[in-house]
Amino acid sequence: MSERFWNFELMDPYELVSLTPAMVDKAEEKFKVTFPARYLELLQEQNGGSLYLNKFPIADFEEGSIDVDYLWGIGKSGKQGIYVTSYLIKEWGLPKNLVLLNGDGNFWIGLDYRQNPQEPGVVYLESDSDVEITLAPSFEEFVSRLYREEGSDELDMSLFEDDKTEFTQEEAEQAFADKIVLPISLALLHLTKVETEIDWFLNQAEKLLNNKDSTIVMEAQGTLMQILLNQPEQFTPLHLQHIKKLLASLKKEWKWHSDIVNYAQKIEAKIKQMSV
Questions:
Q1: Secondary structure element (H or E) that encloses residue 125, with its range
Q2: What is the full per-residue pLDDT of the chain (276 aa) written as tens digits?
Q3: CA trace torsion 41, 46, 52, 56 (10° rounding)
Q4: Three-state DSSP class for 175?
Q5: Which helix (H) or strand (E) holds 209?
Q6: At what angle do helices 237-253 and 214-230 cross, to 10 degrees?
Q7: Using an 8 Å Cβ cutoff, are 165 and 190 in contact?
């Protein structure tokens, strides 16, 4: 895909285990529907999670849009992802023949199979009113109209008014060398906001990924992923090969730490996508 869809967070509460054909077959059999090809394509990249494209325009609303912060994926059990649909429909008195993708009790977004079990539209409903809006006649069109809210990437730096939040390369290197978590985190955050020299960054990332503090390792992983997403054109095949070696070593060193291993695998999947 040409445009980023998922947020690719280090620890995403909405992300499920990698999708398999058996999981798709089981879910389609349970709901007696066919899932949109575009939905399954996105779930192959990440099985549910927080969205980078997090807004959908609705002109009739005062705000002009609704939040779509995440989409549910397809879980392995009846309590994960879209499998909560049956319970929520009963609990909130929602129409049948929906597969819910997002919702919090006040409003819901779902695939609407009431007219056609093969080609669903996407619907928005509110629990405490009669509001029901067809957002798009297909899931593919729904996705095409999602956008990133301006300013979503900005962090309120006043929270760190007593701390340094902008770094030269030399200052970042000093922060990394001091091995104190907060300055390292702020230096890494700065690198995600500016165009970063890749050779220099990979040299620093290798040192951070070899750190014995799991918090620092995960911060470095998160920054590596963000730079891969923000500056993909700056990475050569040699860069990607070097990252693969770093990740292989990282998984071996931290094989007992599931969060580090899982995110390393997510970075590997991104690299594979970039290499195609």
A1: strand 121-126
A2: 446 899 888 778 889 988 999 999 999 999 999 999 999 999 998 999 999 999 999 988 888 899 999 999 999 877 789 999 999 999 999 999 999 999 988 899 999 999 888 899 999 999 888 889 999 999 999 999 999 877 655 444 444 444 567 888 999 999 898 888 888 988 998 898 889 999 999 999 999 999 988 889 999 999 999 999 889 999 999 999 999 999 999 999 999 888 898 899 889 988 988 887
A3: 50
A4: helix
A5: helix 198-209
A6: 160
A7: yes
Q: What is the pTM of this model?
A: 0.69
Length of the chain counted residue by residue: 276
Count CB neighbours of 257 within 10 A: 16
Contacts of 147 (CB under 8 A, 6+ apart): 53, 55, 56, 57
Instruction: Kindly report the number of other CB atoms within 10 A of residue 230's CB atom.
Output: 16
Q: For residue 124, what are its two tokens?
A: 């928005």
User: In this structure, how many other beta carbons lie within 10 angstroms of the beta carbon of residue 72?
Assistant: 24
- For residue 95 the two structure tokens come to 């129409």
Q: CB under 8 Å to 32, separation ≥6 — which residues? A: 117
CA-CA-CA-CA dihedral for 152, 153, 154, 157, to nearest 10: 130
- β strands within 3-89, DSSP E: 49-50, 55-57, 65-67, 70-71
Distance CA 96, CA 92 (A): 11
Question: Helix H segments across 34-178?
Answer: 37-45, 85-92, 139-145, 169-178
* Distance of alpha carbon 147 from alpha carbon 53, whole angstroms: 5
